[in-house]
C-alpha cells in the first residue's frame, strides 16, 4: 500500500521525515489495477478520489474510508531511502483544493514543516550545503545542485522505483531574491536566538508610551510584537559584526560567557570588528582559556543587522552626554515597524525597560511620476544630486538646487507613498519662485525703512494693516502647529497660500499705491512698511527649516540692522496677542469677497478693451445688506484726502472711484456688471482726467499750478502731506 503524497519541490524529498494530513478529512484506501505504479492500494483524501482518477488516468475503487485522525502515527517507508517515518497531523495548509490531501513534510526545508516536526519531536534533516548542493546524507544525489539538477534526478529515480504516480507542470508562488531575481531555497541550520517571551508584555506597554505618527503605526507594531516569535539574531554572511562565540571541537558546546564577551569587546573596541577574523582563537580568548585554545574554534556567524541597527540607541544616545535618552524621534519607512523600529524597541526594553524613542514617524516610499517603484533595472531612479545640480543634459534636467528638493519633501503627504518626477519638480520650482519673488518685493519696499525710528505703533495702523497682522498671527500659528505635528504638507500649503493669496493677490496688490505714490515718510507708507517687516521676517523664519538657503539669503539682505547675524539664530516667528483681532475677520472676509467679485467684472471689461487697467474704471456697488452698507460707507469718503487714506474701497478694488448706489437700477445701466447675494457690481468709465504720476483718474487734475498733470493726492504727496 502506498501513501499518495504530492510536492511542488521534488528536491526536498531526501529531507522527508513525515507525511501530514488533515484530521478533519476522511481518507480512502483505493485500489488501482493499472501499471500506474508498484502499489495496488493507495491512501488519498476521500473527497479527491474522482478527481485523482482523472489525474492518474485510471480507475480508483474505494475499498475503505478512514477518519484522518485515525491515521496519525501510521508508519510508512521512504521510497528512496531505507528509513521509516510517520503520518502526522499537519496544519490548515493541508486541504483538498489541490494534490492528494496528504502533504510531504521535510522539517529542514520549510517553516510549516519545521513547526509540525517540532510539535512531534522530529529531528531536522537538511542534506544541503551552503552552496545549495546535496551533501552525503542525500545518498546517490550528493553533489547535485538542488535547483539545477536535483529535481530531474529525483523524479527519474522515483520512476525507476515505481513510486511516481504523476508528473505535471504546476504554477505556484515561490520566493525569489529581490536583488539577483533568482529563486531561493529554505534550509534549516543551527542559529542563535534571543527570546522575546520574557519581556513581550513590557514591550507592549512601552509601545503605548510612544507617540506614533500616523497613529495607525501603533496598531501595526503592536500586532507584530504580540505575535513575535523568538528572534533569530545570527546570520551566515562573510560581512558584519561577529557573534563572539567559541565552540568546543569535540563536544560542539558553545563557550559564551560574560568574561569571554567582555574580552572580545575590549579587543574590538581597540582594533575594530575585523580583529575577530584576523586574530587567532588563542588571542581572542581570555587568559584562563588560552592553554586550551587548541580545543576551541571561533564561530563564523555574524550578527543580524537588525540587531546592530536596533542597538544604535546604545551606541549613539547613551554614549553622548549632550543627547537625551530616550531620544525625541525616530523616523523611517513604513516597513520599519517590522525592522528598525521593532528591533530598537526590543533591545531597549530588554536592557532598560523603556522604548528608545518618544515619537516614531513613519513615511511611505518614493515612486516615480507614474507611481512605479524606483529600480535600477527599470532605469527610473531619480538621483537627488541630479535634482540639485542638474543632469548631463541641463536643458532637459536643469539644476533645481537643494531648496526645491526640500520644498518637494514638505509638499507631499508622507504618510503614504509619494511621487516625484520632472513635471512635479517643475511645478515645485514655480512655487519656489513665487515665494522668492514675494520675498524680493518685501525686501525692495523696505529699502528705506528703519525699524528703530519708522515703526508705527499698532494703535495708529490702518484697519487693513491691523487685519493683516491678524492674518499673520493666524498663518504662522498654523505653520507652527504644522511643524510641531510633523505635518509638513500643511506648512507648504499655508506658506504658498500666504505668499500668493494673502500677500501677492491681496495685500501687496493694494499696498503698491501707498508704497509708490505716498511721501516716503508718510504715515500711510510707514504703516504698510511696518507690516511688511513683520511679514518678511516671519516668512524667513518660517521657511528656514525647509527653504534654508532662501531663508538665509533673505536674512543677509535685510536692509536694516538686526541683532542676529543669521536667520537660524533669530528664533521662531513673531506672533503677538495684541495682533489677534478675530472680530476683523468677518468684515474683511466680506471685503475680500467683494474685491474678488469686482475683479471678475473688471477683467470682463479689460478683455473687451473697454478699459486698459482697473484704474481706468469707476466701480458701482449695490449692497442689499444695510448693516454692511453702513460699514462700507465709512470706507468710501467723499473727499479723497479724508480719513487715514488707506481704508478706502477705491484702494481695495484698485479703481479710480467707487460709488455705493441705492438701487439695482443704476447697476443695470452699466455695460459690465454682475449680481450676487452679497453685492452687485457695475463697471463704467472713470470720471475726470488721468494723473500722470499715479495713473488714477480725478476730476481735479489740472487744478494745481505747480504741475497741472497731477491729481490732488499726488500734489499732497509731493509736499509731504499724503
Using brief descriptors, characterize the structure shown.
single chain; 722 residues; alpha/beta; Isoleucyl-tRNA Synthetase, domain 2; Rossmann fold; Isoleucyl-tRNA Synthetase, Domain 1; 4 domains; 4-stranded mixed β-sheet; elongated
Topology diagram in text:
Elements: E1 2-3, E2 18-21, E3 26-31, E4 41-45, H1 49-56, E5 61-67, E6 75-77, E7 84-89, E8 102-105, H2 111-120, H3 146-160, E9 193-194, H4 200-208, E10 211-213, H5 216-226, E11 231-232, E12 234-235, E13 246-248, E14 254-255, H6 258-271, H7 275-278, H8 281-284, E15 296-298, E16 302-303, H9 305-310, H10 312-315, E17 327-333, H11 340-352, E18 357-363, E19 366-367, H12 384-389, H13 401-411, E20 418-419, H14 422-444, H15 451-454, H16 463-484, H17 488-517, H18 523-543, H19 548-556, H20 583-607, E21 617-622, H21 626-634, H22 649-653, E22 657-660, H23 664-669, E23 672-675, E24 680-685, E25 689-690, E26 697-698, H24 712-718
Parallel strand pairs: 1-4, 2-7, 10-18, 17-18, 19-20, 21-22
Antiparallel strand pairs: 2-8, 3-4, 3-5, 6-7, 9-11, 12-16, 13-14, 13-15, 21-24, 23-24, 25-26
Amino acid at each position: 500500500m502506498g501513501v499518495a503524497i504530492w510536492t511542488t519541490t521534488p528536491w526536498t524529498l531526501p529531507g522527508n521525515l513525515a507525511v501530514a494530513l488533515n484530521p478533519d478529512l476522511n481518507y480512502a484506501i483505493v485500489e488501482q489495477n493499472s501499471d500506474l505504479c508498484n502499489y495496488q492500494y493507495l491512501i488519498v483524501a476521500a473527497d479527491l478520489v474522482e478527481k485523482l482518477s482523472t489525474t492518474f488516468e485510471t480507475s480508483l475503487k474505494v475499498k475503505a474510508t478512514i477518519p484522518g485522525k485515525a491515521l496519525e502515527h501510521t508508519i510508512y517507508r521512504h521510497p528512496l531511502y531505507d528509513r521509516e517515518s510517520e503520518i502526522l497531523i499537519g496544519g490548515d495548509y493541508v486541504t483538498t483544493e489541490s494534490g492528494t490531501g496528504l502533504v510531504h513534510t521535510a522539517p529542514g526545508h520549510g517553516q510549516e514543516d519545521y513547526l509540525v516536526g517540532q510539535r512531534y519531536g522530529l529531528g531536522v534533516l537538511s542534506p544541503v550545503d551552503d552552496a545549495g548542493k546535496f551533501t552525503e546524507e542525500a545518498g546517490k544525489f550528493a553533489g547535485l545542485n538542488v535547483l539545477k539538477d536535483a529535481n530531474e534526478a529525483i523524479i527519474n529515480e522515483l520512476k525507476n522505483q515505481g513510486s511516481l504516480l504523476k508528473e505535471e507542470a504546476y504554477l505556484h508562488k515561490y520566493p525569489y531574491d529581490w536583488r539577483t531575481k533568482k529563486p531561493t531555497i529554505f534550509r534549516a541550520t543551527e542559529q542563535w536566538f534571543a527570546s522575546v517571551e520574557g519581556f513581550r508584555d513590557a514591550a507592549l506597554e512601552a509601545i503605548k508610551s510612544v507617540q506614533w505618527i500616523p497613529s495607525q503605526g501603533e496598531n501595526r507594531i503592536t500586532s507584530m510584537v504580540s505575535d513575535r516569535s523568538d528572534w533569530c539574531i545570527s546570520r551566515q554572511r562573510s560581512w558584519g559584526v561577529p557573534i563572539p562565540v567559541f565552540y568546543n571541537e569535540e563536544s560542539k558546546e558553545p563557550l559564551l560567557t560574560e568574561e569571554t564577551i567582555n574580552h572580545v569587546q575590549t579587543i574590538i573596541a581597540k582594533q575594530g570588528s575585523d580583529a575577530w577574523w584576523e586574530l587567532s582563537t588563542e588571542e581572542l580568548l581570555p587568559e584562563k582559556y588560552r592553554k586550551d585554545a587548541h580545543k576551541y574554534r571561533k564561530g563564523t556567524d555574524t550578527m543580524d543587522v537588525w540587531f546592530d541597527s536596533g542597538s544604535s540607541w546604545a551606541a549613539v544616545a547613551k554614549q553622548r552626554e549632550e543627547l537625551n535618552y530616550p531620544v525625541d524621534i525616530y523616523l523611517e519607512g513604513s516597513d520599519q515597524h517590522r525592522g528598525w523600529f521593532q528591533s530598537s524597541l526590543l533591545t531597549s526594553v530588554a536592557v532598560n525597560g523603556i522604548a528608545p524613542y518618544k515619537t516614531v514617524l513613519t513615511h511611505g516610499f518614493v515612486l516615480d511620476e507614474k507611481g512605479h517603484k524606483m529600480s535600477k533595472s527599470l532605469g527610473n531612479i531619480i538621483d537627488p544630486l541630479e535634482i540639485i545640480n542638474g543632469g548631463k543634459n541641463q536643458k532637459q534636467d536643469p539644476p533645481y538646487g537643494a531648496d526645491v528638493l526640500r520644498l518637494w519633501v514638505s509638499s507631499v503627504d508622507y504618510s503614504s507613498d509619494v511621487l516625484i518626477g520632472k513635471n512635479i519638480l517643475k511645478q515645485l520650482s514655480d512655487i519656489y519662485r513665487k515665494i522668492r519673488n514675494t520675498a524680493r518685493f518685501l525686501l525692495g519696499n523696505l529699502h528705506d525703512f528703519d525699524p528703530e525710528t519708522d515703526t508705527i505703533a499698532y494703535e495708529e495702523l490702518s484697519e487693513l494693516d491691523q487685519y493683516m497682522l491678524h492674518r499673520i498671527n493666524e498663518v504662522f500659528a498654523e505653520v507652527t502647529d504644522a511643524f510641531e505635528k510633523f505635518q509638513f504638507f500643511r506648512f507648504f500649503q499655508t506658506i504658498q497660500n500666504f505668499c500668493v493669496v494673502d500677500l501677492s493677490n491681496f495685500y501687496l496688490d493694494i499696498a503698491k499705491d501707498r508704497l509708490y505714490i505716498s511721501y516716503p515718510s508718510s504715515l500711510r507708507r510707514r504703516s504698510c512698511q511696518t507690516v511688511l517687516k513683520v511679514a518678511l521676517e516671519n516668512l524667513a523664519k518660517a521657511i528656514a527649516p525647509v527653504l534654508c538657503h532662501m531663508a538665509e539669503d533673505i536674512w543677509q539682505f535685510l536692509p536694516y540692522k538686526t541683532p542676529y547675524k543669521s536667520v537660524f539664530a533669530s528664533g521662531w516667528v513673531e506672533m503677538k496677542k495684541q495682533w489677534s483681532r478675530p472680530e476683523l475677520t468677518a468684515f474683511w472676509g466680506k471685503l475680500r469677497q467683494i474685491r474678488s467679485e469686482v475683479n471678475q467684472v473688471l477683467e470682463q471689461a479689460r478683455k473687451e478693451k473697454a478699459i486698459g487697467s482697473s484704474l481706468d474704471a469707476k466701480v458701482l456697488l449695490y449692497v442689499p445688506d444695510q448693516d454692511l452698507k453702513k460699514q462700507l460707507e465709512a470706507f468710501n469718503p467723499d473727499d479723497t484726502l479724508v480719513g487715514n487714506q488707506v481704508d478706502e474701497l477705491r484702494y481695495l478694488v484698485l479703481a479710480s472711484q467707487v460709488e455705493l448706489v441705492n438701487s439695482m437700477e443704476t447697476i443695470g445701466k452699466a455695460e459690465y456688471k454682475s449680481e450676487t447675494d452679497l453685492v452687485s457690481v457695475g463697471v463704467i468709465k472713470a470720471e475726470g482726467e488721468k494723473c500722470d504720476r499715479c495713473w488714477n483718474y480725478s476730476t481735479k487734475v489740472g487744478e494745481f499750478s505747480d504741475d497741472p498733470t497731477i491729481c490732488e493726492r499726488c500734489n499732497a504727496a509731493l509736499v509731504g502731506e499724503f
